[in-house]
């Protein structure tokens, strides 16, 4: 609904009761990332640990959600179990439109439920259901059970966790509508710590539209650009897995725990191979006509003679990099089998793959033994990795319990820190060079999407520290505006500042449209201030030795350049935090 | 022979679940932001892995919803489906109860929303799942003629 304030539902899981809260800030925090930070400032406790029942789990959408195509993402804000600092994770599916049609700009969940529970909300209902019988049940089975319990197929979103979330893995994900995820930084463990197995959001509200033709005509124009030009072709066609061959060709694909950056065998897991051999169909987030979600399949022979079962598995570049290239798997079905197991356990696929890549090399080097790994981990052994992922999600022993808290935590205890591929959290799939490594290691979300460091590496030969860091700061600011609207970052080329302003104006958000740049600056500062207040020290960030040992298309990594980038970026982050305190 | 156009959904196997059709109908026909108050609604049956189904009006002739309507708000449309006169509607919900394929949505105030076969949703489908089909306009069946008289 178009309004000059935020309408927030807060729910206390200890009592099962909720409250609708009206908050100002539309013209300053906008929504999405900005609203999540605003809500953490209001409801969060920087000094208390992430699992304190009082800590909020926040979901927010933006002023344009549902009103324009690809405004289809939800921002999740929480104190992360990965580093006990404020963090954000983003997901699509039907979550954003369901929140919009539930007439909420944000949902804040606090407290801890007495029993494992499912929170069911809509524009006209709120219920906390006891689902204690779902404890330990994997995501695929719990999904089937929840769908039967909750009405409104097609116009609802179900956010749920698997065993990894219940077991408080620091990189347990929240799965959204089967194929999308709040993947990174352990939102699943926050739900687990609150005894919250699932959140079902029924999008059953209806709203009036602005009068006149401006909005309707603008919608049609944006829809046309997205569907009839080639601007979104990459995502619609092969999807993000198109990057596999490109990065392999550039010598920038992390392979076998980043011991290699290119390999001719990678052709077995390129986007082209996935499309030719495994692609069943595409699907989409609600409100997005692009349909970038690629669905492949796994087929298993479970009995002789010729008795098979099959499951559908979504794939993208990042899961293929993490459970394929990093684990030396060069068979597309092998990769899908591992992703499928990760999905059942409810782990972040990137962290899980990179963690097991480290464990494999540590086992090879004799730093750990099979006593720890329980499985004889070997690069290119998909069956072994499927077993290991079940151990990782189940905390099978002390080793897996620690590894599930983060690769570096395990490396600090067992050794092998120098080859732990951790940049703030387990790395994204871009061995493009110094600027990306700095960007992820110190970036706000430690995400490959915080800013386009991977792109800067590919388009700039010169090693100008100030210019590179200025790019990271500016690009982050541009992206935080988008994630406050909340637009899918795949549409960042389409939603220019001019178009965003036009969209906001057409809905009557004229002040916001006039001040987008200042709003983005403000939100960027607000987020960093929160991050610093919850303990982040950008000067203490370490980039493991392995990242300096690689060779890309540009040659060897320049350690001095990397070090200087790190120092300068830390300085700029601290300046941003301090500046806000003066205001 | 006289013909009329009706909305059909011949290629739903291609549907990606973007809801662009429902959103377009709500926006352009019913002037609302919604995926419910639309003449075509998309559902996933038993989870996203089973694909999507559309819930459109099948353009019945005679239309059970028109026969059930006690006030003439719904009347038989030539070629199938119904003509809707909102001013005559008393929001009793009988139309939705009579529809055999759950194609009529009742909002919180029991106001009905049904496809009027205008085709405005069709160009918004990115995968060409929808199509306006030409059908012959036949004389109204005797039963329908009697029932639709206000």
List the SSEs and their pairings.
The complex is a heterodimer of chains A (583) and B (150).
Chain A: E1 6-12, E2 17-23, H1 26-29, H2 32-43, E3 57-60, E4 74-79, E5 86-91, H3 95-101, E6 106-110, E7 117-122, E8 126-130, H4 139-149, E9 156-160, H5 163-166, E10 174-176, E11 180-182, H6 187-193, E12 196-202, E13 207-208, H7 214-228, H8 233-236, H9 242-249, H10 271-277, E14 281-283, E15 293-303, E16 307-315, H11 317-323, H12 332-345, H13 349-364, H14 370-373, H15 382-394, H16 398-403, H17 407-414, E17 422-423, E18 425-426, H18 434-442, H19 453-459, H20 465-482, H21 497-506, H22 510-514, H23 516-533, E19 551-552, E20 555-556, H24 559-582
Parallel strand pairs in A: 1-6, 7-12
Antiparallel strand pairs in A: 1-2, 3-4, 3-6, 4-5, 7-8, 9-10, 9-12, 10-11, 14-15, 15-16, 17-18, 19-20
Helix pairs in contact in A: 2-23, 11-13, 12-15, 18-19, 18-24, 20-23, 20-24, 23-24
Chain B: E1 3-8, H1 20-28, E2 32-33, E3 40-44, E4 52-56, H2 64-68, E5 74-76, E6 82-84, H3 94-98, E7 105-106, E8 112-113, E9 131-136, H4 142-148
Antiparallel strand pairs in B: 1-9, 3-4, 5-6, 7-8
Molecular structure report:
The complex is a heterodimer of chains A (583) and B (150). The mean pLDDT of chain A is 96. In chain A, the strands form 5 sheets. Chain A has a 6-stranded mixed sheet with strand order 2-1-6-3-4-5. A 6-stranded mixed sheet of chain A has the order 8-7-12-9-10-11. Chain A has 3 domains: 6-202, Aldehyde ferredoxin oxidoreductase, N-terminal domain (Aldehyde Ferredoxin Oxidoreductase,  A, domain 1); 240-390, Orthogonal Bundle (Aldehyde Ferredoxin Oxidoreductase Protein, subunit A, domain 2); 432-483 and 515-582, no CATH class. In chain A, α11 (317-323) packs parallel to α13 (349-364), α20 crosses α23 (516-533) and α20 (465-482) packs across α24. Chain A has 24 helices and 20 strands. Chain B has 150 residues and is an alpha+beta fold. The longest helix of chain B is centred in the N-terminal third of the chain and has 9 residues, at 20-28. The model of chain B is unreliable at 145-150 (pLDDT under 50). In chain B, a hairpin with a 5-residue loop joins β5 (74-76) and β6. In chain B, the strands form 4 sheets. A two-stranded antiparallel ribbon of chain B has the order 1-9. Chain B has a single domain, classed as Alpha-Beta Plaits, CATH 3.30.70.20. Chain A binds chain B through residues 1, 66-67, 69, 97, 100-101, 124, 143-144, 147, 153-155, 177-179, 203-209, 216, 219, 223, 227, 281-291, 293, 295, 311-312, and chain B through 16-20, 23, 26-28, 31-37, 41-49, 51-52, 107-108, 124, 126-127. β13 (207-208) of chain A pairs antiparallel with β2 (32-33) of chain B, so a sheet runs across the interface.
